[in-house]
């Protein structure tokens, strides 16, 4: 189950809808082997979110409902899983429940403070809620944690833009 979980988290899978569908299948297979694997449910939620914004045969609202169920299951199985809280944050953010999204993402950061992806998510939330100084601080933190990350660099750029520092 863990090996399937790792395969589902391969960043290359996120570059296309077909890759995201492959990731979705890895997480489903991991859950079939271990139905109590919270992080696999979190991965399932992330892939449903990814597919919801691409070409899909399932209506976007249906895909987002699947993501929410998987994220809630992940948190219910393991409240100490940072990935579970980050997945639930993504769902909440997409539903414009920004206070709840921030609470979940801050919980993920508290559980796993060295995960650059979580800090990148905070940049997006702070930019959306018009907190430019906080967005820039989180962007710099993400870049500090993963200096070669293209997404961390992109989030710093976003933070600079919301701070009118082009």
Number of strands: 0
Are there runs of 5+ residues with pLDDT below 50, and where? none
Structural class: mainly alpha
Q: Helices and strands, in N-to-C order?
A: HHHHHHHHH
Mass-distribution shape: globular
| DSSP strand content | under 5%
* Head-to-tail CA distance between termini: 45 Å
Oligomer: single chain
Computed Rg: 16 Å
Average pLDDT, all residues: 93
Largest sheet, strands/sense/barrel? none
Work out the helicity level: over 70%
Tally of individual helices: 9
Explain what the structure shows:
This protein has 9 helices and no strands. The chain has helices at residues 2-8, 17-33, 38-52, 60-77, 82-94, 98-111, 116-128, 132-145, 150-162. The mean pLDDT is 93. With 166 residues, it is mainly alpha-helical. Helix 7 packs parallel to helix 9 (150-162).
């Amino acid at each position: 189950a863990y090996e399937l979980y790792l395969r589902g988290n391969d960043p290359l899978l996120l570059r296309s809808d077909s890759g995201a569908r492959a990731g979705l299948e890895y997480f489903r297979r991991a859950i079939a082997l271990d139905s109590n694997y919270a992080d696999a449910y979190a991965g399932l939620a992330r892939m449903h979110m990814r597919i919801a914004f691409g070409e899909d045969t399932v209506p976007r609202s249906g895909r987002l409902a699947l993501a929410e169920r998987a994220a809630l299951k992940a948190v219910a199985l393991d409240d100490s899983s940072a990935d579970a809280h980050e997945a639930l944050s993504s769902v909440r953010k997409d539903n414009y429940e920004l206070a709840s999204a921030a609470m979940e993402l801050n919980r993920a950061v508290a559980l796993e403070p060295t995960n650059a992806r979580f800090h990148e998510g905070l940049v997006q939330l702070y930019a959306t809620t018009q907190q430019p100084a906080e967005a820039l601080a989180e962007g710099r933190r993400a870049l500090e944690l993963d200096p070669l990350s293209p997404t961390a660099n992109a989030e710093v750029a976003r933070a600079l833009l919301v701070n009118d520092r082009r």
